[in-house]
Amino acid sequence: MPKSEKNFQEGCGGFFIKDVENSLSQKGMFLSSTDKKFAVINPARMCQPLGAVQALLGVKGAMPLIHGSQGCSTYMRFQLCRHFREPINISSTSMSESTVVYGGEKNLIKALDTITRQYEPELIGVTSSCLTETIGDDMDLIIRNFLKDNNDFPVIPISTPSYAGSHVEGYNHALRALVEKLVNPTSVHYSEEKSTFESSYIDNKLNNLRRDPKYVNKNYNVKINLITGLISPSDVFTIKDLLQEMELESIILTDTSQSLHSPLNGEINFLPSQGTTIAQIKDTINSRGTICLSRHADSAGVFLEKNFGVKLINIPLPVGLSATDQFVETLSAVGNKEIPENIKLERGQLLDAMVDAHAYNYKRRVAIYGEPDMVIGLTRFLSELGMHPVVVCTGTQSNIFRDEIGVMALEYGHDIHIISGGDLYDLQQKIVEEDVELLLGNSYSARIASEKNIPLIRVGFPVFDRIGAQRINITGYRAGLNFLDKVTNTIMERYYDPGIQEKI
Ligand code: SF4
Fold it and tell me: Residue 101's domain is classified under what CATH number?
């Protein structure tokens, strides 16, 4: 690896496993599996408030406020800016030694006051941090005290203790908090007549949209709530595009397609000028259903179903052929719409490309690393391409991840090492053991790929050592086709180009 690249990766990714092992072996020590239980070496996950901030950045006019020390806010801005390459503002309550002893109430109230006066946001999302969770600040109470003269202003407390989860959980908690705090039971639309959807295709196809009799007269509108999970702005855009092609109205929770991929037009915005509006979030209780594309971020959908009878439909992230089929068929059923010819054409083209590429991809041994929903989606897609995912890894502890990959392993007859809640040390160990030929993961896996001389396709969060992270697109048929080309061409370049074997 060139020295400059090595230094760059060291600067961004911290020390590397080899460095740890070298340093220990110089002292006559070795890393045992027992040591490993007490030390995470190059973590593969990020902290909860970071995920919550990503959800908030998809809300128009929202200001994220981290109730913690300034370093937390700086770390998150740094990660988000270098990935999305957008100016991102995250405020902080700037906790210090004395506020740790006496509590952070004064700081939080002061911060809320300053932000509302100086930036005039439409909403403030307050996330907790390791520090304020540990000292036990009651954010709900402090915010209620702050709001006593201004009850209508939305300040959303979001509990995000980093030692109890990853950015995926933080994202999930933020969506739930947004919906739970903004919706108002008095704005549910009821009518004297039975709902127009009562005997519709949806009820028959999707097992009775309104199961609870108390909602029988609820007047659902034609919109669909859509929870995307933690995906790139381009993927959110693709999903919106598919909904538009199917002529379906939707509320995206939350819409980062432009707020984290904005045009250069001379305007400088301190707050997201695009995204899901507060009015839209309030209206989610009147939608005909919620489609959730993330098994790890469905709690807002569960809340809406439980409290307002809005049917929740959980389906996988539409990555690859069968998952996109499921998404398109669900949209068709929920919206009572025919699948447009253009979408059928794109499906056919993807299928054709899969056949064309099969000879190159067949049985290639792949490792996939990143956010759990993305890894699940890519594992299925690469299996559809005839490849063999031998190692799959996510930093988030998740039984759902284990189960879903386990089911796929049985379905495709693959032996797969599943690492859930692991770190980059675990990933590297398995990559070496399994003789991996291609790695898919974020920039933190670049050094593993480089050291082991394995081609890397960058995907997930964060991608900071290449340009265009916000445009990495894997959802839907069209993006699936482009991604397939990328995977196959990477394999061809490494393993089929004449003379390459001698160079490796
Ligand atoms: S892990 Fe905790 S202390 Fe570190 S940035 Fe995240 S919230 Fe702050």
Answer: 3.40.50.1980
Length of the chain: 504
Ligand 1 center to residue 73 CA distance, Å?
A: 9
pLDDT per residue as tens digits for the range 260-313: 999 988 888 889 999 999 999 999 999 989 999 999 999 999 999 999 889 899
Same domain, 203 and 310: yes
**Phi and psi of 330, rounded to 5°?**
-65, -45
Ligand 1: atom nearest CA of 75 is 5
Which of 272, 305, 335 terminates a domain? The answer is 335
Residues 6+ apart with CB under 8 A from 164: 48
Cβ of 99 closer than 6 Å to ligand 1, yes or no, is no
Does the beta carbon of 130 lie inside 6 Å of ligand 1?
yes
| Residue 129 CB less than 6 A away from ligand 1 | yes
Does 154 lie in the same domain as 112? Answer: yes
Judge whether 251 and 281 are in contact, CB under 8 Å: yes
The residues, ordered by sequence, that sit 6+ positions from 27 with a Cβ below 8 Å of its Cβ are none
DSSP string, 199-267: TSHHHHHTT-S--SGGGTTB---S-EEEE--S--HHHHHHHHHHHHHTT--EEEET--TTTTS---SS-
- Say how many Å lie between the CA of residue 458 and the centre of ligand 1: 25
CB neighbours (10 Å) of residue 256?
29
Strand spans (E) along 121-161? 123-127, 155-158
In angstroms, the Cα distances linking 426 to 39, 184, 430, 434, 437 are 12, 46, 6, 12, 17
pTM of the model: 0.88
Q: In whole angstroms, give the CA distance from residue 129 to residue 138.
A: 12
What's the gap in Å between 164 CA and the centre of ligand 1?
11
CB 180 within 8 A of CB 152: no
The CA distance from 317 to 297, in Å, is 12
Residue 160 CA: nearest ligand 1 atom is: 7
- Give the integer Cα–Cα distance in Å for 106 and 145: 11
* Position 189 confidence tier, pLDDT thresholds 50, 70, 90: low
